[in-house]
Amino acid sequence: MTEETPQDGGGGLGEREQAVLAVERRSWPGPGAKERAVREGLGLSPTRYYQLLNALLDDPRALAHDPVTVNRLRRVREEKERRR
Description:
The protein is mostly helical and about 80 residues long. The protein has helices spanning about 15-25, 35-40, 45-55, 60-65, 65-84.
């Protein structure tokens, strides 16, 4: 399985991309819990995770798959960019 190959056969998001969005849907109990889940559950470093997540925010397939999460994260990203 590659990151770019969708696993659902319908041109949608692959399993890894869906898993990244699922991590973002959850609320986390404290510092480090999310990073630990990313490392253990997805097998990704936090840096690589955030690179994938940022790319997903610009992917129309991600918006179609989970519009609430993607739009929320886009707003957060835009606010951070405005503060710079």
